[in-house]
Amino acid sequence: MSAKLSEDDLNDYIAPGPVCVNPAGSSSNKASSAANGTSSGELEVGQESSEPEKVSISLQDCLACSGCITSSEEVLLSKQSHTVFLDAWKKLPSSSKILVISVAPQCRLSFAQYFGIPLFQMDTALLNIFANVLHCRYAVGTELGRAIAIQHTNEELLKLKKQNNNGADGVKKSLPRLCSVCPGFVLYAEKTRPELVPLLLNVKSPQQVTGSLLKQTLPPEQEMYHLSIMPCFDKKLEASRPDAIEEGVDCVLTPREFLAIMQELQIDLNDHLNVDLKMSAYELSPPGWDPQLHWASNAGSGSGGYAFQYARYLQALNPGSQINILNGRNGDVREYRVTAIDDPQKVLGSTSELYGFRNIQNMVRKLKGTQRGGRVVVRKRGANKSDSAQNCGDMQADPYETEFIEVMACPGGCINGGGLLSGESSVKRRATAQILDERYEKELEELDPLNLSLGSVSERSYEYEFHAIEKTTDMVSMSSAW
């Protein structure tokens, strides 16, 4: 796949390309090399096969490749597909493992929209399918993992803010830190934009935090097979990172793929709509997990609300302040600027959202010091933030001067993830995303992650380290880059 992006590729997923299948010497050539005392990993001049053969690429190889942003479809399907899950699921009764399923809130809404039913009915059906058809032991939402990610994002940003105010060395004061919960953007930065890697905040995504929490909750002797249902295909890559494999996420599927499971197992949704959701949610919750928490959501964007929640955090630390919402010249850029109520020109802190690769490419140029764009038009925002936010038409959004940017690869963010049941055309997907965004604010039970006591959580549960991946021309041994 080419590292260059066309306008049609500006989403979280790129289709397979010929570069993903690389030629290698034949087995007879390898044998000849060994006989001549050369390394089997090298090609001797004059000994190359005139008819190169194709070799398959593993998911690890694709992660190591610096020539693309996301993985190809055939690579994903080889390791994390609905058929792979079903094969593993059929073997669970004869093993000591239990099935555990986690579901992102965007996926629950996508199912509800696709089947044309209210969210609470869809949740009922999902829980019953998990329990009565797939025979899972536990089923959880990802809000508990997200709340931990939000809290530690806020704490890390505040620590950096204090260091900068004190003139400490480290990250340049003019550059914002970047959210790292979107694997499409993280891989893009690691492979092609190494200058962005030091700016990535070392906080794991809700998917990975949830996996760690589940693993810590169960007794050490209890093995689990963890299926995670996520809105985009890139989450498969995140679960397959070398530093994520031990976190307890065995397989990642999207709603599209889970629908294929329902079709293959001949599951009729209507057969699973008539059970008390509250009892089912409690019965399927792990010990100590409250479904009113992990099955909920929080205020902010449909991608998790990290930017808005940090603005709320700054507001709470500065009594007498307000949050000003400033939108960009397209709907995928927004700033939350915290100012004093009695002096709107006094900026106490700021944070922003920035979605889609067109905006990401602009962000890269802006962070590298190129000229800024034109005037920004400010539009009003949804009612769920009206109690703590003011819309100020005389201010201009400037995400590149904020302290933190919630970056997502998909236009529209996670509510427009490529794995959701939103149709194939970009027009249909964006229209569905707008509907899901409205339902996200109205139908999901909302909790306040800032006032949630989560107890002590080990750093290993929520911290990552990111590293730039060096480019290599040795396409046959790509995995050496990791």
Describe the structure.
It is built from 16 helices and 14 strands. The protein is α/β, with parallel strands linked by helices. The chain has one domain (69-465). The strands form four sheets. A six-stranded mixed β-sheet has the order 5-13-11-10-9-12, with helices on both faces. It has a four-stranded parallel β-sheet with strand order 4-3-6-7, sandwiched between helices. The two termini are 19 Å apart. Residues 1-46, 69-73, 168-172, 370-387 and 473-482 have low confidence and may be disordered. Residues 24-41 have a biased composition (Low complexity). Keywords: 4Fe-4S, Iron, Iron-sulfur, Metal-binding.
Structural category is alpha/beta
Q: What kind of sheet is the major sheet?
A: 6 strands, mixed
Percentage of residues assigned to helices: 25-40%
- Proportion in β-strands: 5-15%
Amino-to-carboxy terminus distance: 19 Å
Question: Quick check: average pLDDT?
Answer: 79
Number of spatially distinct domains? 1
Our count of helices gives: 16
Region (Disordered): 24-47
Organism: Zygosaccharomyces mellis
Protein name: Cytosolic Fe-S cluster assembly factor NAR1
Domain Iron hydrogenase large subunit C-terminal: 97-418
